[in-house]
Amino acid sequence: MSSETNEKVLLELIKVSKQFGGIQAVEDFDLKIQKGDLHCLIGPNGAGKTTVFKLITGQYPVSSGRIKFKGKDITSMSASKRARIGMSIKMQVPGVFEELTLRENIRIAAGNYTNAADLDAETERLIKLVKLDTIGNPPVRNMSHGQQQWLEIAMALSSNPEILLLDEPAAGMGPEETAFTADLVNELNAQGLTILFIEHDMDFVKQIARNVTVLHYGKKFAEGTVEEISNNPAVKQIYLGNV
Amino acid sequence: MRKTKMQFSLGSENIITVLLLVAGAILPFFLSTYRVSIFSYFFTSAILGLSISFIWGYTGIFSFGQAAFFGIGGYTYGILSKLFDNNALTPVALVAGVALAAAVAAILAWFMFYGGINDVFVGLITMCFTIALSTFLGQTAGSEWKIGDVSLGGFNGITKIPTLYFGSYKCDKVTFYYVTFLILAAIYIALLLLKKTKAGYSLLAIRENRTRSELFGYNVPKIQVIVFTIGGAIAGIAGVLYAAWGNYITPSNLDLSASTLVVVLVAAGGRKNPTAALIFTIAYSIIANTLSSSGSQYALVILGLILILVILFVPNGIITAAFDGIDSAWRKFTGKKTESEGGETA
Amino acid sequence: MSYLYQFCNNFSFLILSAIGLSIIFGMMGIINLAHGEFIMLGAYITTFLATAGVPLPVAILIGALGTGVFGFLIDRLIISHLYNRPLDSVVATWGISLIMCQGMRILFGSSIPGTSTPLGSFSIGDGKYSVYRILLAVIALLVVVAVYFIFMHTKIGLHARATMQNSSIASSMGVNSNKMYALTFAFGSALAGFCGGLYAPTMSITPDIGSNFMMESFVTVIVGGTNPLVGTVLSGGVLGLVRSFLEMNMGTFAGRVGLLVVAILFIRLVPKGFSGLVDNIRKKMEVKKHAKN
Q1: Average model confidence (pLDDT) for chain C?
Q2: Percentage of chain C surpassing pLDDT 70?
């Protein structure tokens, strides 16, 4: 492999495995995310997608294998450190602070990366970015499911990350909300942000993803462009056939 | 709409804050010296309550250990001030008491939070720690438990502890009242201001969701250790002031019921709100004091009943609920105009 | 021999005082601060009956039963509103313990006449041993076996274990988790009452005897973790050993303090207590089996 391609690789998983007790959740999983990619991780329920995310963010330690980010080995780095060097996530279950207001949420996320003096301006910028600037400042528990998801994306963006991980960004959304989310993801990617996301909804994947990795029983099952994958008969059989 | 409600809740709390501070400042002009002195004692409980409000209400660390840090502060002050045998050095004993309480809290916190212990288990470990300390102090009656010529005194604790002096100026009665009042007010105001700062938001983040905060880049264990240490220092101050006020400290100041009582009081008043914690701990002290001096055997039964009813019907705390009640009444009274005002400031 | 006796003594005390607390904590996540007062209630009922001429074993059983019924009422009235709010239940149970302790004092004064320890004692060498104390150790073991049987071999036990592991899945499979919690609380209370009844003849009966049990029962549960059986038995065993050793060599107070220090260190090294440790070992063994296959 040439050094030129290496420089373009932002995130790399090398033979990563994870066991929980007796269960092999992820096995010898390799993944390479190029800078600027819009990459999707798909797979049937229980394939280990969310576990892979948690290994990348450092919520779980790996059982074996290595993780590299920006060419640096981060396998044993703490989750908070990984976040500070440019890795952000929107979790599956909205990881927002429900008892707090919209702006308090953003301030919590941005507080770590912004001077106190700029915090107000930064808060408003982020709220505008996900187009939540028209709803006032409600407590998050009163916001719709879609709004909560976008809020969390805004929070994830507060660190000016180099890679954004999205765990089912369109889950539980209506068609309009899904379309808005797709636009948002595309726009962010167009601005140069590398995005890796998990998704169930194949239409959504086709709308936005460029490359796709298929996970099955914790192992890599197939990988390729979105066209290749959606025409792959084996993938259809394990996954798409059921949709 | 919701935001409006919150704005006004803060509004009424601010009014109460000012009233409380003014009341505290002028109290000695209206009460006998004896009563004023009793209030100094109530204030030490309130400071202890604020330490719980800070670590539990603000940061979500559930600790039964504050009574232990209270005890460490008090015992350290007692031992050192008697060892020095020089009243001018009592402020040194004060600082040492606070420092030792903070240091022990830091070690315990490091031990727990970097070990990944959280939630109810922190409560259990701190409970064990507190009981261990009070059990140990309870068996120090023998002559082998002496530091210099200061006896730890077993269940009777340390007696004849000198009060605070500044130079040769003896700080007692009304002066002592003002010292405790100023310390209490300073901690209280600091806690209120903290809420609006970046540091305040990081505590809030940890209270609401540790995992998420970690993923936002907060070094959660480090912040927890810092918070727990400061909480220990605050409890230590309370203990020092208590020992200087009553001239004694005993193991019962840090036994199981002392350590749970303060947690229970803060929970019942409203743990997320320092004003609520403050009002409720002082109100409880006043009620308990009156009931016990009236000799009623039903005092504890009534207290127990109040706690149960509060938890069942106003789980956010009785004082917090009262603030909300006043605010909604105020909103009805002033009508819709204020609502739009609140919306603008949002 | 005296070491063994001491160990049996400590072991049975730790197990009997902790098992009720541990079942409630393990199943419901609730720390019952009124546990000591439940023990006290059992001791009172037993003592009243025994001094009125009821045979002691019967009195103890009625004491356990009465405390269980009382626990059930407390659960329906108060605790059932606090499921899923473990920290609030701490406050509530503290209130309950205040009321029970002071209420008993108001009703019956600061102490009641007790019964003497039955069955006498025997001596071997210089040591004097109480037969009743040895019987208590046997009973402690029987209680463990009985609890094991209930949990592992009855339908209610199965439902209880299902609820403990995942209450939402259990209830989706038709287990009424509210009913399970109520039963658990009653059962835990009954065991507390049983402990009170058993120890009633060995101590003077005052409204605050609960505090004699509180510390030991908490420490045992902390070290044991959330599995009421494995955790309690192992931690009772280990703590019993530690305590007996310290007591024999350094005195009673060293025993108490040492117990707490060991507990703090242990929970730091093994945050989930013995239950977590056993779980991990079991999982590792499964992995190995897996690997072989």
Answers
A1: 80
A2: 85
Task: Please tell me which residue of chain A has the smallest CA distance to B2.
Answer: A138
Burial class (CB in 10 A: 0-12, 13-18, 19+), B19: exposed
Q: pLDDT tens across A36-68, in order?
A: 999 999 888 778 888 999 999 998 888 899 999
Q: How far apart are CA A75 and CA B168, in angstroms?
A: 62
**Domain A3-86+166-242, what fold?**
Rossmann fold (3.40.50)
Residue of C nearest to B119 (CA): C87
pLDDT digits 0-9 by tens, C218-277: 888 878 776 777 777 788 888 888 877 777 777 767 777 777 777 777 777 776 667 667
Is the predicted pLDDT of residue B342 greater than 50, yes or no? no
Residue B346 lies in a domain: no
What token pair was written down for B216? Answer: 């936002």
A109: Cβ contacts below 8 Å, ≥ 6 apart: A154, A155, A156, A158, A159, B216
Residue A132 backbone dihedrals phi, psi, to 5 degrees: -105, 20
Chains touching B by CB (3 or more pairs below 8 Å): A, C
Where in the sequence is the domain holding B68, given as residue range(s)? 2-341
Q: Where are the beta strands (DSSP E) in chain B?
A: 146-147, 150-151, 165-166, 169-170
Are C178 and C221 in contact by the 8 Å Cβ rule? The answer is no
Overall average pLDDT of the B129-142 stretch? 83
Chain C, nearest residue to A24 by Cα? C287
All chains having 3 or more CB pairs closer than 8 angstroms to chain C: A, B
Position B19, amino acid: L
Range B285-294 average pLDDT? 77
The residue assigned the tokens 């609960």 is C210
Number of domains in chain B: 1
In whole angstroms, what is the distance from residue C107 CA to residue A204 CA? 71
Reported as a single tens digit per residue, the pLDDT across C51-91 is 888 888 888 899 899 999 999 999 888 888 888 777 778 77
- The answer, yes or no, to whether residue B222 has pLDDT greater than 90, is yes
Residues 6+ apart with CB under 8 A from B306: B268, C95
Mutation pick from C281, C283, C288 vs chain A, by most beta carbons of A within 10 Å, is C283
pLDDT value at B291 more than 80: no
Higher pLDDT, C114 or C202: C202
Q: Summarize pLDDT for C208-228 with one digit per residue, the tens.
A: 888 778 878 888 887 877 677
Q: Return d(Cα B207, Cα B209) in angstroms, integer.
A: 6
Give C 249-278 residues with CB within 8 A of chain B: 253, 256-257, 260-261, 263-264, 267-269, 271
Query: How is chain C split into domains, by residue range?
Result: 2-210
Q: Hey, what's the torsion of the CAs at B309, B311, B315, B316, to 10 degrees?
A: 100
Q: What would the 3-class secondary structure string for chain C be?
A: CHHHHHHHHHHHHHHHHHHHHHHHHHHHCCCCCCHHHHHHHHHHHHHHHHHCCCCHHHHHHHHHHHHHHHHHHHHHHCHHHHCCCHHHHHHHHHHHHHHHHHHHHHHHCCCECCCCCCCCEEEECCEEEEHHHHHHHHHHHHHHHHHHHHHHHCHHHHHHHHHHHCHHHHHHCCCCHHHHHHHHHHHHHHHHHHHHHHHHHHCCECCCCHHHHHHHHHHHHHHHCCCCCHHHHHHHHHHHHHHHHHHHHHCHHHHHHHHHHHHHHHHHHCCCHHHHHHHHHHHHHHHHHHHHC
Residue located via tokens 């009163």: A142
